[in-house]
Prior knowledge:
heterodimer, A: 114 residues, mainly beta, four-stranded antiparallel sheet, B: mainly beta, six-stranded mixed sheet
Amino acid sequence: DTGVSQDPRHKITKRGQNVTFRCDPISEHNRLYWYRQTLGQGPEFLTYFQNEAQLEKSRLLSDRFSAERPKGSFSTLEIQRTEQGDSAMYLCASSPDVGGFEQFFGPGTRLTVL
Amino acid sequence: AQSVTQLDSHVSVSEGTPVLLRCNYSSSYSPSLFWYVQHPNKGLQLLLKYTSAATLVKGINGFEAEFKKSETSFHLTKPSAHMSDAAEYFCVVSEDSGYALNFGKGTSLLVTP
Lengths: 114, 113
């Protein structure tokens, strides 16, 4: 199965620590997206890449958050100085340039900030 | 601005009976609409999508949805529920010129024997 993969699947950290998540999209997909899902809510859009260019960022993406996709393949999402409010599931999705707007989602990384 | 409202946070049906999950949308442009399903501890899976072709859209696992512009609705239906349909369902909107998906808050479907 060559779907979207995310690593790690779970992360527990203490408040104030930095964390980094990785997403590997479906290999032929040029577009990559990050979403955040809190308990009982639908996913919320964070940011979007077209190849290596970060083209759109949500106001939810505070200055403690940074995302990269240096070679247009995998992406990382870093959260600096984590806060308890950052506890959530972080989802990555990818899509091709053509064929509609279907996004294929990974299993997510569940972050718990103590 | 685009958004969706899922009218029920929880729906309970008996196995073998019809399923109706309601969704209303708001969009300034011609929207693309989707239904995604999320089973416990599994990733989001696309059930079906509407992108300005046929207004009645058929998806996987016997689900379908009808786009009604006059009612700004995109309700999800299935004639006969199966136990395996129990999951969280999300109605989603995306405008043609945008790339972000806007999710509703979700409807939890419970299927009882």
